[in-house]
Amino acid sequence: MEITLMIEGQEKTFTQSFVSAKYYRKSLKLLKNLEDGESDQEATLNEQFELIVDIFEKQFTADQLENGLDARQVDEVLWDIIRKDILGWKPYSKMKQDMEQAENSFLAEALENLGKNK
User: Fold this and answer.
1) pLDDT given at position 23
2) In the chain, at which residue ranges do the beta strands (DSSP E only) sit?
3) pTM for the full model?
4) Phi, psi (deg, nearest 5) at residue 58
5) Under 8 Å between Cβ of 1 and 85
6) What digits encode the pLDDT tens for the residues 52-92?
7) From CA 46, how far away is CA 55, in angstroms rounded?
8) How many CB atoms lie within 10 A of CB 117?
9) Count of Cβ atoms closer than 10 Å to residue 27 Cβ
């Protein structure tokens, strides 16, 4: 697993080849708290940053992660590290594609039903 951050004006890539099973448990707990609405969005983001720092064995700090991660990639990076790499879910890109297909199917069905009701 790897992550690339912009640190001191340079891209730096960090890798982690072993992830302790305790991070599987921590990832499940974090997602459960997120689903249950037990913490606000900012607190959840901070928890995810701290979890990633720990997973990568503190090769970088939470501040370096927050400041070095492109804002346009935050959702994808967090998803892919925590959900895909740790929990074994599908990649962010596939999840987004599936959501778009489901949305398009829903819209197509709604339009079809609207046409039948006329």
Assistant:
1) 97
2) 2-7, 10-15
3) 0.79
4) 55, 35
5) yes
6) 999 999 999 999 999 999 999 999 999 999 999 999 999 88
7) 14
8) 6
9) 20
